[in-house]
């Protein structure tokens, strides 16, 4: 892609995200979401492969539908209440439509159908943007409207997302699809707590974005997109494979790594809200996703003969990228000692 075009699209992504998260008016929030959608489309389809074109088509159709629902929800609320303020969403029908629209933008069950296919047809760096940056504006809208949302609906969607994200990821061999179902499963943890403690949702999202960025950048450096490719990386780049192992185990939520921190705090908060059954259910359902995380970690450290003869050349990796991955891994795996402080703040 032309560097100037890539710069324009990157600036547009930052602009759209900034407009959405800083706006108080529904029209401005909708405009920011549309700018984000239009900016990410060329990045998805830049390879001109039929699968990339298909992914871009699915993405624009889904996001256009969700944006139309956001606009319809805000107009319905303004019709009945006379308010265009995001925090003044009080009409029950508007709240229901908005919850469905944001769930479609995020990829929550039952609106998850587009996300694995789009991520599979996108490059790894674009997949990183789809899994992290593109989810930040919708989560911000959920954060601002959290007092008005239907907690029962969100709890049902969260449990279904955690169950389906773990179940559908079990038999996948494509790494991008596994990470897509991982994202759906993590979104379930964020959605179940948004109406009770929105700060925990943001904490969970920040840590998830940190760990996912580590995994995607490591996979991009290794050039691995399938489990069979990942199995040969230990003989080629052992330090990066060890880095990927730690990041995957942290993403799985195994103590004492950082990924365990948000799950621990969410279970604690759900118990305080007399939702011990929901806390137990989502904890047990997360064991499904733990299986494919452990399988990925095993594939990242298994030693198989590489397919190429000149595999020793791959030891020379891009130093800035390797340094960034090391920083992200250290940050995403060593934050657990500050959990008592975060627990007292929450």
UniProtKB/TrEMBL annotation:
Topology class, membrane: Multi-pass membrane protein
Organism encoding this protein: Pycnonotus sinensis formosae
Protein name: NADH-ubiquinone oxidoreductase chain 2
Keywords: Electron transport, Membrane, Mitochondrion, Mitochondrion inner membrane, NAD, Respiratory chain, Translocase, Transmembrane, Transmembrane helix, Transport, Ubiquinone
This protein's GO CC annotations: mitochondrial inner membrane
Function: Core subunit of the mitochondrial membrane respiratory chain NADH dehydrogenase (Complex I) which catalyzes electron transfer from NADH through the respiratory chain, using ubiquinone as an electron acceptor. Essential for the catalytic activity and assembly of complex I.
Catalytic activity, EC: 7.1.1.2
The family this protein is said to belong to: Belongs to the complex I subunit 2 family.
Enzyme class: translocase
Domain NADH dehydrogenase subunit 2 C-terminal as annotated: residue spans: 290-342
Domain of life: Eukaryota
Catalytic activity: a ubiquinone + NADH + 5 H(+)(in) = a ubiquinol + NAD(+) + 4 H(+)(out)
GO molecular function, one term: NADH dehydrogenase (ubiquinone) activity
Protein localization: Mitochondrion inner membrane
GO biological process: mitochondrial electron transport, NADH to ubiquinone
């Amino acid at each position: 892609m032309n560097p100037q075009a890539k710069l324009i699209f990157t600036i547009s992504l930052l602009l759209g995200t900034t407009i959405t998260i800083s706006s108080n008016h529904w029209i401005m929030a909708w405009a920011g979401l549309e700018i984000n959608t239009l900016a990410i489309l060329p990045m998805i389809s830049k390879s001109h492969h039929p699968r990339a074109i298909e992914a871009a088509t699915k993405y624009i159709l889904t996001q256009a539908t969700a944006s139309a629902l956001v606009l319809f929800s805000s107009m319905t609320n303004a019709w009945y209440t006379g308010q265009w303020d995001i925090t003044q969403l009080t009409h029950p029908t508007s709240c229901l439509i908005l919850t469905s629209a944001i769930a479609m933008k995020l990829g929550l069950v039952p609106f998850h159908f587009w996300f694995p296919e789009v991520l599979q047809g996108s490059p790894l760096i674009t997949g990183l943007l789809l899994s992290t940056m593109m989810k930040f504006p919708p989560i911000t809208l959920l954060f601002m409207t959290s007092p008005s949302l239907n907690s029962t609906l969100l709890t049902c969607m969260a449990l279904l997302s955690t169950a389906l994200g773990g179940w559908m990821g079990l038999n996948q061999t494509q790494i991008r699809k596994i990470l897509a179902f991982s994202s759906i499963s993590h979104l379930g943890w964020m959605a179940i707590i948004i109406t009770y403690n929105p700060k925990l949702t943001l904490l969970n999202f920040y840590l998830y974005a940190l760990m996912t960025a580590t995994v995607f950048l490591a996979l991009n450096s290794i050039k691995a997109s399938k489990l069979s490719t990942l199995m040969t990386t230990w003989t080629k780049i052992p330090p990066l494979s060890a880095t990927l192992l730690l990041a995957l185990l942290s993403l799985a939520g195994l103590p004492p790594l950082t990924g365990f921190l948000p799950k621990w705090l969410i279970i604690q908060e759900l118990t305080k809200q007399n939702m011990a059954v929901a806390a137990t259910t989502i904890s047990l359902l997360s064991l499904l996703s733990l299986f494919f995380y452990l399988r990925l970690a095993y594939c990242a450290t298994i030693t198989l003969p590489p397919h190429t003869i000149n595999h020793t050349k791959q030891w020379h990796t891009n130093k800035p990228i390797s340094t960034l991955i090391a920083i992200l891994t250290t940050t995403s795996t060593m934050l657990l000692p500050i959990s008592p402080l975060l627990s007292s703040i929450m």
